[in-house]
Design brief:
The complex is a heterodimer of chains A (about 80) and B (about 425).
Chain A lengths: L2 H14 L8 H7 L5 H13 L3 E5 L4 E5 L14
Antiparallel strand pairs in A: 1-2
Helix pairs in contact in A: 2-3
Chain B lengths: L6 H5 L8 H14 L10 H15 L19 E2 L17 E4 L9 H14 L3 E4 L6 E4 L5 H11 L16 E2 L13 H11 L1 H5 L9 E4 L8 H4 L2 E7 L4 E2 L1 H8 L20 H4 L9 E3 L4 E3 L9 H5 L4 E2 L4 E7 L13 E7 L6 H17 L6 H8 L1 H8 L32 H7 L3
Parallel strand pairs in B: 5-6, 6-7
Antiparallel strand pairs in B: 1-2, 2-4, 3-4, 7-12, 8-11, 9-10, 12-13
Helix pairs in contact in B: 2-3, 4-5
Classes of the chains: A alpha+beta (about 80), B alpha+beta (about 425).
Chain lengths: ~80, ~425
């Protein structure tokens, strides 16, 4: 698969999840079982830089989701 | 002076110890009087105090959990903090924390400290934590629009980068090392800096299932407590013999030199007694004193450092120096706290530190493959067993990894080594053994 197909797979998989909006890096690794985890994390980080995904961190742990999906703190009381 | 109604916080100002409440009040007063062009709300410290008082009254916190705050291109260094009562406390509506990579061993120029204080007064709350437990400079409380501005000023004007947070490599930390300490067995500052530069990507972007910390202690005294606080503890040690200056030993015994470098001088402990204070306290009983000469059976020495600390003018670390590498320390979330486990008894620590970098790479690959989300390396080591971990590191088991025989032995039998393998016919077994 090419990089664009990989990104599409990630976005489609995340959009397909109805109950979760934040994911651990491990969830992304599971989408590419044949890849080394370090390669997957680099792809995910690239997608964050491109504005497709975003980090969400407690300070202790980092989770990743589609940009703008789920609770966004500033807009927590809104309809999102 | 503003009259606050914070009776519970005020209790924390009583007693002889310094009080963070007094510090915040002092900064609140300062912000009310300053002529600095503040880019964050003037009342930030006032609202922080009132919010904390409310938390004490309600007996629950008023900070939301987590956030997306950060700078472009980085996935760490900024910790989003949002208040859950923003209408009542608008000045701390967003109150983000920044972790800034500290200079090795905390060597600062006053000029730098003034600049960072000026920056944080102008663009933050003025409140700092020097330093956080990972070692970073912690800048407490700024608003979302200020984050990129601060990052620009930090990197361009102060030449300082953000540190690690979240599931990143955390900011590496080291003791004062060879810059000031004669016990340092390797250049901790150089090792810390070199590995920090090598692993910039892991430091700034989440690469793992959870945090990973590395700390560098120059000797077994462990001034950054790497053995308790880091997933990878690099602790200086030596291979050869402790160097003894017998004349200086005599001088200690005769009272010419003060033991412990003059420490513990607050009361009269009586004359120095080498047998009671050194020989009998050696944990491996590898020292002897015949009244004239000090002897050490170096093969039994476990580098506790007590004798060297007590008589530093007489005893010195060996000449063949390097470090022991230990893995897996963590605080109690799962299972309980644990100290790092000795994995590499001795490694030379010289530039460009390729050996340790290669080892770190192997371990990260295994941890990323096998580790669960939010599982620390030490927990994975426990779950998979130390034998597996040694396999991953590519090192053979060594008696120095074991505390005492038969207490915690590691069994390394593999199926291929056993005639007939592991499999057995249970029915055949039951013919000879009842349930």
């Amino acid at each position: 698969m090419g990089a664009e197909e990989d990104k599409k797979l990630i976005i489609d998989t995340l959009k397909g999840k109805k109950t979760k909006t934040k994911f651990y890096l491990k969830d992304f690794n599971n989408m590419f079982p044949e890849r080394r985890p370090r390669e997957v994390s680099k792809l995910v980080n690239e997608m964050v830089a491109e504005g497709l995904l975003e980090y969400w961190s407690t300070g202790s742990t980092t989770m990743i989701g589609l940009k703008g999906a789920g609770i966004q703190h500033e807009t927590e009381d809104s309809d999102q | 002076m503003v009259k606050r109604k914070t009776p519970m916080l005020d209790e924390l100002e009583k007693g002889k110890w310094p009080s963070f409440v007094s510090d915040i009040k002092q900064e609140a007063e300062s912000r009310n009087e300053t002529d600095v062009d503040l880019q964050t709300p003037k009342e930030v410290c006032d609202d922080l105090l009132d919010l904390l008082e409310l938390s004490f009254k309600d007996r629950e916190g008023h900070w939301k959990h987590g956030g997306i705050a950060g700078v472009f291109g980085y996935g760490g260094g900024v910790i989003g903090r949002y208040c859950d009562r923003p209408e009542e406390f608008p000045a701390v509506k967003d109150f983000h924390t920044l972790r800034v990579n500290q200079p090795s061993s905390y060597f600062y120029r006053t000029e730098f400290l003034r600049k960072i204080c000026e920056l944080w007064e102008r663009r933050g709350s003025g409140l700092t934590n020097m330093h956080g437990s990972t070692g970073d400079i912690i800048l407490l409380g700024t608003t979302t629009p200020q984050i990129e501005e601060i990052f620009w000023e930090l990197t361009h004007n102060l030449k300082q980068d953000l540190g690690g947070s979240g599931s990143n490599l955390r900011t590496p930390n080291c003791c004062i090392g060879k810059s000031r300490c004669e016990f340092a067995c390797y250049d901790t500052q150089e090792a810390c800096r070199n590995l920090t530069m090598e692993f910039q990507d892991e430091l700034h972007r989440p690469s793992f299932g959870y945090k990973f910390k590395m700390k560098f202690d120059g000797c077994p005294n462990g001034c950054v407590a790497s053995i308790a606080r880091s997933d990878m503890s690099v602790i200086g040690t030596w291979k050869d013999d402790i160097r003894i200056d017998q004349e200086a030993v005599q001088a200690y015994v005769a009272g010419e030199f003060k033991p412990d470098g003059g420490g513990f001088a607050g009361r009269d402990w009586g004359p120095f007694d080498i047998v009671k204070e050194v020989i009998d306290l050696c944990p491996t009983h590898c020292m002897a004193w015949n009244g004239k000469k000090l002897g050490i059976n170096n093969r039994e020495c476990n580098r506790c450092m007590h004798c060297i600390n007590t008589m530093p003018r007489a005893l010195r670390i060996g000449k063949e120096t390097g470090a022991s590498i230990l893995f897996g320390a963590k605080a109690p979330i799962l299972e309980g706290a644990q100290l790092s486990t000795l994995t590499i008894p001795f490694m030379r620590m010289e530039e460009p530190f390729n050996e340790i970098k290669e080892l770190v790479g192997k371990i990260w690959d295994w941890w990323s493959e096998e580790g669960r989300s939010r599982e620390r390396l030490g927990e994975l080591m426990q779950r998979k067993g130390f034998a597996k971990f040694l396999d991953v590191c590519g090192v053979k088991a060594d008696p120095r990894m074991i505390k005492e025989p038969r207490s915690n032995p590691y069994i390394f039998w593999k199926e291929a080594d056993i005639p007939g393998g592991w499999e057995r016919d249970i029915k055949d077994f039951r013919k000879r053994h009842q349930k």
